[in-house]
Amino acid sequence: MMKARDFITLSLTDKVKMLYEQGSFVVAIRYYGYKVNLYLMKNYYVEVFYNHKKDRIERIDLLDYTHSRLKFYTDQISLPTDINPLS
């Protein structure tokens, strides 16, 4: 399984491939103009930002535990607090 620090250096296409092959879908939220899908990659979470108006994935990033968007996830599911995404 790829570590988070290696995952973030991949191209968008390679990130999509890695998520398809190794990721587990957790939940989806609506956030401004995006549908944001949250995936679990063994020991870190990844967000996929899909712009439905443009019909494309615009970015894939590690989950930012300090962002206010986290509340949208925690309203639906419980996220563990002991995950170190860069380990």
Tell me what the structure shows:
This protein is an alpha+beta fold and 87 residues long. The chain has one domain (4-74). Helices cover 23% and strands 36% of the residues. The chain is built from three helices and four strands; from the N terminus they run H-H-E-E-E-E-H. It has helices at residues 4-7, 12-22, 70-74, and strands spanning 24-31, 34-41, 44-51, 56-62. It has a four-stranded antiparallel sheet, covered by helices on one side. Strand 2 (34-41) and strand 3 (44-51) form a beta hairpin. The mean pLDDT is 88.
Summarize the structure.
The protein is built from three helices and four strands.
Q: List the strand order in the largest sheet.
A: 1-2-3-4
Helix proportion range: 10-25%
Distance between the termini: 12 Å
Kindly estimate the percentage of residues that lie in beta strands according to DSSP: 35-45%
Overall radius of gyration: 12 Å
Features:
single chain, 87 residues, 4-stranded antiparallel beta sheet, 4 strands
Can you lay out the helices and strands and say which pair or pack?
Layout: H1 4-7, H2 12-22, E1 24-31, E2 34-41, E3 44-51, E4 56-62, H3 70-74
Antiparallel strand pairs: 1-2, 2-3, 3-4
